[in-house]
Write a structure and sequence with these properties.
Elements: H1 6-16, E1 41-43, E2 68-70, E3 82-87, H2 91-107, E4 115-120, H3 126-135, E5 141-149, H4 155-174, E6 178-185, H5 188-193, E7 195-197, E8 200-201, H6 202-220
Parallel strand pairs: 3-4, 3-5, 5-6
Antiparallel strand pairs: 1-2, 7-8
The chain binds ligand LW54GNZ2 and the ligand CC(=O)[C@@H](O)COP(=O)(O)O.
Length: about 220
């Protein structure tokens, strides 16, 4: 089976996207009200007319006969189990991010019983819990939520960088997708704008990413 890097898949997707539902929410912070209708796991049976690997009409052909393109679905959420690890630091922000995540799970028909929320003191503590939950084998994806807001010292950089690399590590070491829903902002305004304000809700986006990755791992990738 041939696999494709995300960039290659990204180049292909514009030509495969029959509905706007395939893209991330833009105007609404919580995503589309109707569930999108696309799911990709397909192979190309006949060779395309042209398989030249040179740009043509501004687009590089990425498909070749026999290749399989795998992508998670947002529509088949039954049986998918999620954990959400939430930092309590800057709780006014992280509660809004959590609400966004839970609302997205609801919209995409994830059962409440399939969601476990774990609260931790700060973003620095998120990764170790995400890793433990991932290794438990009880979840298909873990959403990691926090809000790191710059103060007067360099502490911000330590916490933000640790959260980012820690969440990445939690995913790699557990083999379960750990989604980075930790805001790293210069001030509270920036954070609130991304927690349901004018820049959307990053918790909602993280939940959407979790659904897609959970589906990819459960239904499409090799065991
Ligand atoms: N300043 C922020 C923190 N700091 C706390 C750390 O996350 C951690 O709890 C502490 O260092 C003990 O290990 N956490 C955030 O989530 N956001 C911040 O802005
Ligand atoms: C990111 C933080 O930990 C932040 O609260 C630190 O603030 P300060 O740099 O003023 O101590």
């Amino acid at each position: 089976m041939a696999s494709f890097a995300a960039t290659e898949l990204g180049l292909l997707l514009p030509s495969l996207s029959p509905t706007p539902g395939n893209s991330r929410p833009t105007s609404s912070p919580l995503g589309p009200s109707n569930k999108p209708s696309v799911s990709f796991s397909f192979s190309l049976r006949a060779p395309p007319a042209a398989t030249r690997l040179t740009p043509r009409n501004g687009r590089v052909p990425v498909a070749a006969a026999g290749t399989k393109h795998l992508m998670g679905s947002l529509t088949k959420t039954d049986g998918l189990k999620f954990a959400v690890v939430v930092a309590r630091f800057n709780e006014v922000v992280t509660n809004l991010l959590l609400e966004g995540a839970l609302e997205t799970f609801r919209r995409y028909s994830v059962d409440n019983d399939d969601i476990t929320v774990v609260k931790v003191p700060g973003s620095f503590e998120v990764p170790v819990v995400a890793q433990k939950l991932g290794k438990s084998g009880n979840f298909h994806a873990i959403v990691c939520i926090g809000a790191v807001i710059r103060g007067d010292t360099t502490h911000y950089d330590a916490v933000a960088n640790s959260a980012a690399s820690g969440v990445l590590n939690a995913g790699l070491s557990s083999g379960v997708p750990c989604i980075f829903g930790v805001l790293t902002c210069d001030d509270m305004d920036q954070a609130l704008n991304r927690a349901g304000g004018k820049a959307g809700n990053k918790g909602a986006e993280a939940a959407l990413t979790a659904i897609e990755m959970a589906s990819l791992f459960k239904h499409h990738l090799p065991k």
